[in-house]
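P.,

For your records, the input lines for the assembly:
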Amino acid sequence: MHDITDIPLVIEVTPGLFVRRAEDVMTWVDMGPYGVVIDTLEKPETESEILADIARTLGPKPIRYVLNTHTHYDHVALNGVFERRGATIINRKVHPLDEQGLTLCEGGRRLIMKPIPPCHTELDAIVHFPDDGVLIMGDVFGWGLIPLTTPLTRESAAMLLDFYRQMIALDPRVVVPGHGPMLERSHLERYVQYLPWLIEEVKSAMARGLDEEAIYAAVAPPADMHDWWRFLKWKHADSVKKVIHAAKRGRI
Ligand SMILES: [Zn+2]
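Structure tokens returned:
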């Protein structure tokens, strides 16, 4: 089946800010005297293609910083390529961030990298361009996938939803996830409704004594989310599964 990410596409989201839309997303941005890269994909063999894309869009300016939203293998593959060319790598594993995070102001552009609660890994961060209205969330938004890598519980669900509400309050125009197409603030708003709905629906189906197979049938994916990236393929069912598992253990 056709998937919008089958063919990588470099999109200039706002002047000088480029997102390479694909299964794994990478962003680079013109900061005036230098460029900044955010997340560096999974496959080392993309090196020459990526370097060509960046040269074509940013020109010959050096990449001074590589920022990683987190350090899963599919976000750091080309870190070394840029490091060897003089870039400084910044992620929370190698560069602790305090509450304020890191701000770069250059070339008329403001970039803020901020630590966030552990919604996906222990050391997650977002990158926000407040004046451009662009928010890079990494894998904390998963197009319907519950992004937690820790068990789903009442507390972790509340943490996630609270974090989403904070991101909505930033009022982004474009949100860049770690994988798949870009989204808008309204998708975050939809997810904040979806997850509590899903939890309640699954719990109520379990309370009615439905077996697992019947629960999957009873808790159908909402029609208005059918076009979410890979949602029908597996993400909704995966979320149902996680909620069943948590509910069985009395954790949600
Ligand atoms: Zn990840």
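Two observations worth noting. The pocket of zinc ion is lined by residues 70, 72, 120, 139, 178 (CB under 6 Å). Residues 9-248 form a domain with the Metallo-beta-lactamase; Chain A fold (CATH 3.60.15.10).

Regards
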